[in-house]
Design a protein that fits this description.
Layout: H1 3-22, H2 31-53, H3 61-84
Helix pairs in contact: 1-2, 2-3
Length: about 90
């Protein structure tokens, strides 16, 4: 990949990070929506960083599957944790 490709990826990551930090200013009644939005943005950033900067895009598919399973388990544990404390109610 060219330098321009990495610059574009960095700009997208900066934009997603700015959107993540903007959830701090959302109204108080939108915690559930903010949590779902943050999980989605976290997933986007995770895939971009793993695929581009860790060069997973060019490695064996086995490594991709291992990262997908790890991401799925992390999101599942996070959601179970939030549900345990009745965060979504």
């Amino acid at each position: 990949p060219t330098d321009r490709y990495f610059i574009n990826v960095a700009l997208v990551l900066a934009l997603v990070t700015a959107l993540e930090t903007s959830t701090y200013w959302w109204p108080d009644g939108m915690q559930t929506v903010a949590t779902v939005a943050l999980i989605i943005m976290m997933t986007i950033k995770f895939f971009m960083i793993i695929l581009v900067f860790m060069h997973l895009k060019y490695d064996s598919k086995l490594f991709s599957v291992m990262f997908y399973i790890g991401l799925g388990l992390a999101v599942l544990v996070y959601c179970v944790f939030l549900a345990t404390f009745q965060f979504f109610v």
